[in-house]
Request: fold
Amino acid sequence: MTEIDWAYVGGIADKVAGNIANQWSIVEKDDVKQEILLHAYRRRKMLEDNYNDAFLWKFCRKAGNQFASMERDARDVIDDQFYYTPEEAKMALSTFVYSDDEMGSMLGRRDDVLSTRITDNLVSARLDATAAMNRLPKRTQELLMRRYVFGLPVKDDTERKASNRALDMLARQMNRDLRRVTA
Reply:
């Protein structure tokens, strides 16, 4: 077991936090550093087992980016702008089976097949979901298409959880794209 030099880890965390604060305008360097060090302290056993420079830098970058991402997501929820939920992202995905003409003829009418109400907002959600899908990894896109567009059953509990995480990723990406346009 290796003894952790917390001053050394703090120095790496400080440098990484500075880089992250420059890349993510919504976080402050000191907040990022504090979160990195807290993350490191909670996972000190992992640090002891893998105590080398390459691992420490990677560990700090990942912890800092996760914190910045969580801060951005939290801000998106409370910024008083529209926010897509995973359920709304799922509804948008369910419209992918319809052509644009079919969508146009369904506006304002009840859709018994999907048990949702097709509205003008769903058309814009469909456009946002299409754009956001293109920014997601291919594996995530395939999983979303399989489960929520084609309606194929999941193979096991692992795939069910992965598809739920993919839906969360889609909703977050839709919100990021929406804020990028309006910002």
